[in-house]
Amino acid sequence: MSLADILVHIDSTPNCAARLEVALRLAQRHGASLTGLYVISHQYYQPREQGPVDAAAAAAREMFAERTAAAGVEADWHCVDWSVIGVSVAEIINHHAHYSDLVVLGQTTPGAAGKGLPSDLPERLVLGAGRPVLVVPYAGNFPTVGEKVLVAWKAGRESTRAVNDALPLLKAARQVNLLAVNSSANYGDDSESLCANICQHLTRHGIAVNADKVLAATASVGDTLLNRAYEEGFDLLVMGAYAHTPQGTLVLGAVAKHLLKDMTVPVLMSH
């Protein structure tokens, strides 16, 4: 398992350049081809402003071409003019994601709806892409992503899927830690037995793993993960996103929802 094709969502938001740099470094590290996808969206109740829209798309393409050439990364460019009412930006990105190994996009920025982007774009892509989605925070720069990886572990389908989809990144990392966070005082197992099976599985893939557990007595699980990532210098967080309720409804987990809102480090989510 490796990363051969990476898809990065390109737009006109201020954080796009930093997001592209993350995608470029991953492509370099994994020897992957990088595809830039720019979606021209239209407010169907407003006339299209041909000039500004085309100019923004052209500027995005030029930036992408310059950065990929400078990085020596094999690249492809797709500009999709979304003019069909009823087809969302998320559906277009998901369609292209089906032919990639990893999708890189930005955390929703304030005012995203005014730029034709749905406020829940990351959630829609995680659910519909069928691929792991790397969400890059809208604030900050990230010179490394995937060198020190923190995996939020909770035995079950969601975490298992995320860990499996993150294997190429985990294999390339120089440090991988699993953290089991429990908000209940009834902990029971020690950290070794709590994560023993998944650690053994990763070891068989040639990945050295450290496992730990923490009791989130006061802070939320999301804040506990972000605090650990900050305090120990992790540059990537891996976690599951969606789960089924006892009633069978598919919902975005509370921790995933918290991280998508308040993330300070790139987060790889999978479903």
Structural descriptors:
single chain; 271 residues; alpha/beta; Rossmann fold; 2 domains; two-stranded antiparallel sheet
Task: Characterise the protein shown here.
- With 271 residues, this protein is α/β, with parallel strands linked by helices.
- It folds into 2 domains: 5-136, HUPs (Rossmann fold, 3-Layer(aba) Sandwich); 148-270, HUPs (Rossmann fold, 3-Layer(aba) Sandwich).
- Helix content is 38%, strand content 24%.
- The protein contains 9 helices and 12 strands.
- The chain has helices at residues 16-30, 50-71, 89-97, 121-128, 157-165, 167-172, 191-204, 221-232, 254-262, and strands at 5-10, 33-40, 75-81, 102-106, 133-136, 148-152, 175-182, 209-215, 236-240, 242-244, 250-252, 267-270.
- It has a 10-stranded mixed sheet, sandwiched between helices. A two-stranded antiparallel ribbon has the order 10-11.
- Helix 4 links the parallel strand 4 (102-106) and strand 5.
- Helix 3 (89-97) packs parallel to helix 4 (121-128) and helix 8 (221-232) crosses helix 9.
- It starts with a strand and ends with a strand.
- The mean pLDDT is 87.
